[in-house]
Automatic annotation (TrEMBL), chain A:
Keywords: Actin-binding, Cytoplasm, Cytoskeleton, Phosphoprotein. It is found in: Cytoplasm, Cytoskeleton. GO terms for molecular function: actin binding. Residues 1-71, 387-487, 545-624, 703-734, 746-785 are annotated as: Disordered. InterPro entries: Band_41_domain, Ez/rad/moesin-like, FA, FERM/acyl-CoA-bd_prot_sf, FERM_2, FERM_central, FERM_CS, FERM_domain. Pfam families: FA, FERM_C, FERM_M, FERM_N. Residues 1-17, 44-63, 393-403, 456-472, 579-590 have a biased composition (Basic and acidic residues). Residues 75-356 form the FERM domain. This is Band 4.1-like protein 3 isoform X9. One of its GO terms (cellular component) is plasma membrane. The gene is LOC106168876. GO terms for biological process: actomyosin structure organization. Its main location: cytoplasm. PROSITE patterns: FERM_1 (PS00660), FERM_3 (PS50057).
From TrEMBL, chain B:
Belongs to the DDAH family. It comes from Lingula anatina (Brachiopod). This is N(G),N(G)-dimethylarginine dimethylaminohydrolase 1-like isoform X1. Gene3D superfamilies: L-arginine/glycine Amidinotransferase, Chain A (3.75.10.10). Transmembrane segments: none annotated. GO terms for biological process: arginine metabolic process; citrulline metabolic process; positive regulation of nitric oxide biosynthetic process. Pfam families: DDAH_eukar. One of its GO terms (molecular function) is amino acid binding. Keywords: Hydrolase. The gene is LOC106157237.
Length: 845, 303
């Protein structure tokens, strides 16, 4: 298998299924913070075996690692500082990035260090940021440990930095950016900025100086001329009296207004393979064709960022008069670059736009093992770093400014490598570049996807990490990053996130993939469950791929996807692909992640209560699914946060196992969900599959009442099962205390559809046992249809946390392991995994 | 801690203007989108041009008048020959081939008389009419019209890398600035006409910063000249519907109505007849109207 991750532009539809896995595995490994590692859960023995092979492989290769190792424990790192000097720092071989970063910052005496980062370059001279929460050894693929200390997040307003020292370092970075061409300026601006540099480093102009000799060793611009030096000297005279710090402030006050200040450029191609450049900055994502900016997506305009293989996707919030979001796809040269771009976006968004990094709970559903990269920026945000900086109480540290001379000696021979990958003009790099990065990819694809046991050089560490982590991943998906809603419409929106195999967009029937739809501007109060139903009734959702632009080729709405949701959901899919968690053939699997927000009335309980039980019963009669009926959620309130909203989180995992390959799962989904799932049935079977969806479902109301929780107040909520065909008769009222409920459902199903209803099944056994935070229910059914007897075992694990700190990810991983491996007899396969998260915020009233 | 924040320089502070006198060939040979109903009255055109120059002087601008050039009937419309921002002059390649020769004298004047940094268009395929370049004070919007193409837009972006440069398609008008112009800082004047509104919508989609919109009635009323805190606009004889709007909305004292009806017959407008130049000997900041509020120090959100 050759060059898989490079292939996408040419043969997007023909990707081997396992490539997916590969990338996924790498993502997880690479991006998962170590300390949150859930214990491995093995979906199948097969996988385990593959892993062992991997470990073995790794051990064989490990001696090759870290050639710069001096002793067995310590490794010498060379760090190129912003002033052009090198610093040698020894760290333990097993040290995390943070150790190195802290040492560099300490040496530089920097306190406001969150704006900075440590970068390294790969063989193609592409810059990557060292993840501070991961071991350095796992990030350095090969070669010596050479790093650069750089500004990672350019403060939009440098005057708000607390210390001059920090500003000085930012100045050095900006000067480097100017020299490298990353930050282009005209002659006039070069002269102006240069004059401030001279003032800051040399002080006032000395009238005895003749001509420009005194500054001829400075480097001010990529192609500086004597004319420029003259102009700089001329302007230098006018800065008389400015202290170095003042001159630097002037320098930055000008720099920050430059169009390309702090814009991190990434080469890509649009859907028509036209070269473009994506720029990530504090305010959002910019799209350039050559020097022209052809589009701009401010953070509030972006709903979701994702990547898949070498593709990077941006889902755009619909405009005022648009009904649906656009998803715009870009192609990077390879998977790594797509991921790098994605990570850069996630980090910038978090750093500049959020008050604090996403809490682990909020991202849990999206980071469920197998649902893509769980990478999130975990450092401090700008907001936090400013707060922290306000507490700095040391006197301004003294420091030497002597960088420019060194810049001269360093000249371009050292800064040049820094140009290449960043400079838009060098866009050729990476594309079809027959060097290591590309050459490695195939093997990566092979062993991690196909479990072939062969590792690409330098990947051993990754594999090892993967080892510890979630190899059990039953699926891969788009690593997702959902952005918070724009402030104005926070309360009005539903997000329905659907992951899909967008990589197949070319030449592939898109409707096979998951579909996202999004409805907005409904006048219905989004808080009534009924509204949800109505939302759903909106039959067709369209997704546009490609880029809608007026300029030339490359930006058509390439595909219009019509979502087939006749009957609402659970529609059968025609590509029936049996799910086998051990092989992770994922291409045809559908995953749907939904996030809905409902607020249910807390009153009228007695009325709905009875109907609840009735409906629940009918639900369990009509579908195999149990999760609605048997679920008893306790919505508690954390006293500590009684003043504010408190959060109760619950997750439950249901796995259904079948003995027969010809069975399908009913799609009885969680109540009140806009979700439905596309199963992927086995290619051969499913002859008896019907595609009814779960039309039979009547409105199911599950009352969840806070009962045995001692924590007041308890607020009952109701969950309404959506039925596209039935008339909703939910007796919801809105004039009562409301509970904001957040439900997230993740369903994984390998069966052909969600439509296998009318399988009442004969209850064979049912048992459940509960611990403090976890309930395990096992239900076994037997069904007979067309002479085939199938046994279905449904295990449901409910994790409930009420305010207390639970490592949800870990518990979830365990739960999945529990349902998928431990209890999985040899002859059975996992048919469906469903994960739901319900988060309740109980209002103070 | 030094703040470094002085008063933001007025990017619409202009010290010099270049204009060109009207040649005899203007009467018959100048390019026109449509033949005017009445032929151009050359004398009247010259008289209006002189008044225009006087008006510029009233704004406190030093006007350099170039001698007429019979070989170039359109030479009066100097705006199309160069774009000057932040002390840099990009010498255009006008989209009408008959006008290519006009730039030589302009180049020389800008370099020698005004000492500006000259930048040339380095792509033979590029065409640029200055009338398609809208400098908002913060960024540049390039109209892709019959006279300006994408290569031209790239050349502009390259010449002024300090500024975000975007482009919009322009239909139904000669130039982007035939449809809209700056009527003040962060204020764009645009007509209610469908063509103008269509282009405005594109502009709003593309620009980085936000602007207020002054909507006028007649298409030609949207082209006004803003410099040194004052506006020059067309008189009520030309724009009877828009005139009251302008009177109402714009500061009375800082307005001048200037009739250029004869020049309009050859698609002239107020901005097209001059190149405005800011000349600061020792700038403290490069020319940008971008404010701290613009720089995305937006409120943070909590998930």
């Amino acid at each position: 298998m050759a060059d898989d991750s490079e292939k996408i532009p040419d043969s997007p539809g023909k990707e081997p299924a396992d490539l997916d896995t590969t990338q996924q595995s790498v993502d997880q490994e690479e991006e998962k913070p170590k300390d949150q590692t859930p214990p491995p859960a093995e979906p199948s023995p097969k996988k385990e075996k593959a892993k062992k092979e991997k470990v073995k492989k790794e051990k064989e290769k490990s001696p090759k690692k870290a050639p710069t190792t001096r002793s067995s424990k310590m490794v010498a790192c060379r760090v190129l500082l912003l002033d052009g000097t090198d610093q040698e720092i020894e760290v333990e071989k097993r040290a995390k990035g943070q150790v190195l970063f802290d040492k560099v910052c300490e040496a530089a005496n920097l306190i406001e260090k969150d704006y900075f980062g440590i970068s390294y370059r790969d063989a193609t001279d592409t810059r990557y940021w060292l993840a501070l929460d991961k071991k350095i050894s796992k990030q350095m693929r090969s070669g010596p440990w050479v790093f650069a200390f750089e500004v990672k997040f350019y403060p939009p307003d440098p005057s708000q930095l607390t210390e001059d020292l920090t500003r000085y370092h930012l100045c050095l970075q900006v000067r480097n950016d100017i020299l490298s061409g990353k930050l282009p300026c005209s002659f006039v601006t070069h002269a102006l900025l240069g004059s401030y540099t001279v003032q800051s480093e040399l002080g006032d102009y000395d009238p005895d100086e003749q001509g420009v000799k005194y500054i001829q060793d400075f480097r001010f611009a990529p192609n500086q001329t004597n004319e420029l030096l003259e102009k700089i000297a001329d302007l230098h005279k006018t800065h008389k009296g400015q202290t170095p710090a003042e001159a630097e402030m002037h320098f930055l006050e000008n720099s920050k207004k430059l169009a390309m200040y702090g814009v991190d450029l990434h080469q890509a191609r649009d859907s028509e393979l036209v070269d473009i450049t994506l720029g990530v900055c504090a305010s959002g994502l910019l799209v350039y064709r050559e020097k022209l900016r052809i589009n701009r997506f401010a953070w509030p305009k972006i709903l979701k960022l994702s990547y898949k293989r070498s593709n990077f996707y941006v889902k755009i919030r619909p405009g005022e008069f648009e009904q649906f979001e656009n998803t715009i796809g870009f192609k990077c040269a390879n998977h790594r670059l797509a991921k790098r771009l994605w990570k850069t976006c996630v980090e910038h968004h978090t750093f500049f736009r959020l008050k604090e990094p996403e809490p682990p709970n909020a991202r849990m559903p999206l980071t469920f093992p197998g649902f893509g990269s769980r990478f999130r920026y975990s450092g401090r945000t700008q907001h936090q770093t400013r707060q922290a900086a306000a507490l700095i109480d040391r006197p301004e540290p003294r420091f030497e400014r002597a960088a420019s001379k060194r810049l001269t000696t360093r000249s371009m021979d050292e800064s040049e490598p820094y140009n290449t990958s960043e400079n838009p003009d060098q866009s050729a790099i990476g594309y079809g570049h027959p060097d290591r990065a590309n050459a490695r990819t195939p093997s990566l694809a092979e062993d991690e996807a196909g479990q072939g046991g062969r590792l690409r050089p330098g990947e051993e560490a990754r594999a090892a990490a993967q080892e510890d982590e979630r190899m059990q991943t039953p699926d891969s998906n788009l690593p997702q990053y959902k952005l918070p809603p724009g402030s104005a419409d926070t309360k009005k929106e539903y997000y329905v996130l659907t992951t899909k195999d967008l990589a197949h967009q070319q030449g592939v029937n898109l409707s096979q993939d998951g579909v996202a739809y999004y409805k907005r501007g409904d006048s219905i109060p989004p808080t009534t469950p009924k509204a949800m139903g109505e939302d759903l009734d909106d039959e067709d959702a369209k997704i546009k791929y490609g880029y809608d632009s007026r300029y030339g080729p490359g930006y058509e709405n390439q595909d219009t996807l019509e979502m087939r949701r006749k009957g609402g959901q659970g529609e059968g899919d025609d590509d029936d692909d049996r799910y086998d968690p051990s092989t992770e053939h994922l291409e045809k699997k559908r995953i749907l992640i939904t996030t809905t927000t409902t607020t249910s009335p807390a009153h009228g309980t007695s009325a709905t209560n009875s109907s609840s039980s009735g409906s629940s019963r009918s639900s369990s009669e009509n579908s195999i699914q149990l999760d609605v009926a048997s679920n008893n959620l306790v919505e508690g309130v954390d006293d500590l946060h009684a003043q504010q909203d408190s959060i109760t989180t619950e997750s439950y995992v249901t796995a259904e196992m079948y003995t027969e390959t010809t069975t399908t799962t009913a799609a009885g989904e969680g109540a009140g969900k806009m979700a439905f799932f596309h199963g992927a049935g086995g290619p051969g079977g499913e002859s008896q599959e019907d595609h009814h969806g779960y039309k039979k479902t009547t409105t199911t109301v599950v009352m969840t009442t806070g009962d045995d929780s001692s924590m007041p107040p308890t607020v009952p909520t109701e969950r309404v099962k959506y039925d596209p065909n039935a008339e909703h008769t939910t007796t919801s009222t809105t004039d009562v205390p409301l509970v904001k409920t957040q439900s997230r459902t993740v369903t994984y199903s390998s069966s052909g559809d969600g439509g296998r209803d009318l399988l009442p099944g004969e209850l064979v056994s049912s048992q459940s046992h509960a611990s403090r935070s976890q309930t395990v229910e096992t239900t076994t059914y037997k069904t007979e249809s067309d002479g085939v007897v199938e046994t279905t075992i449904q295990r449901k694990i409910t994790i409930t946390s009420e305010g207390e700190e639970l490592d949800h990810d870990k518990m979830l991983a365990e739960a999945i392991a529990n349902v998928t491996s431990e209890y999985l007899p040899q002859d059975r396969t996992v048919q469906k995994i469903e994960i739901k998260t319900d988060t309740e915020e109980v209002g103070a009233d | 801690m030094p703040t470094g924040k002085g008063k933001a320089p007025d990017v619409f502070r202009y010290h010099y203007a270049i204009v060109s006198r009207i040649p005899n060939s203007f009467k018959d040979s100048s390019l026109k989108q449509k033949e005017p109903a009445k032929p151009i009255d050359l004398e009247k055109a010259r008289q209006q041009h002189e008044e225009y120059v006087e008006t510029l002087r009233k704004l406190g601008i030093d006007v350099l008048e170039l001698p007429l050039d019979e070989r170039h009937p359109d030479c009066v419309f100097v705006e199309d020959t160069a774009v000057v921002i932040n002390g840099t002059a990009l010498i255009c390649r006008p989209g009408a081939s008959s006008r290519l020769g006009e730039v030589a004298v302009i180049r020389q004047t800008l370099r020698k008389e005004l000492g500006l940094k000259i930048v040339e268009v380095d792509n033979d395929k590029a065409t640029i009419d200055g009338g398609d370049v809208l400098w908002t004070g913060k960024e540049i919007v390039v109209g892709l019209s019959g006279r300006t193409n994408q290569e031209g837009a790239q050349a502009i972006a390259k010449a002024f890398p300090e500024y975000a440069t975007c482009m919009v398609r322009v239909e139904g008008a000669l130039h982007l600035k035939s449809l809209m112009s700056m009527a003040g800082p962060e204020l764009i004047a645009v007509s209610r006409s469908p063509a103008a509104q269509k282009v405005l919508k594109r502009v709003q989609e593309q620009v980085t910063y936000s602007y207020m919109i002054l909507t006028v009635e007649e298409e030609e009323a949207a082209n006004m000249l803003y410099a040194n805190g004052m506006r020059v606009h067309l008189p009520d004889t030309t724009i009877p519907k828009s005139f009251p709007i302008i009177e109402n909305k714009l500061d009375f004292q800082n307005r001048y109505a200037q009739d250029i009806s004869e020049l309009q017959k050859a698609d002239g407008d107020l901005t097209s007849m001059s190149i405005l130049i800011q000349k600061v000997k020792h700038p403290k900041n490069f020319s940008s109207g971008v404010s701290d509020e613009d720089l995305g120090d937006f409120p943070v959100v909590t998930l």
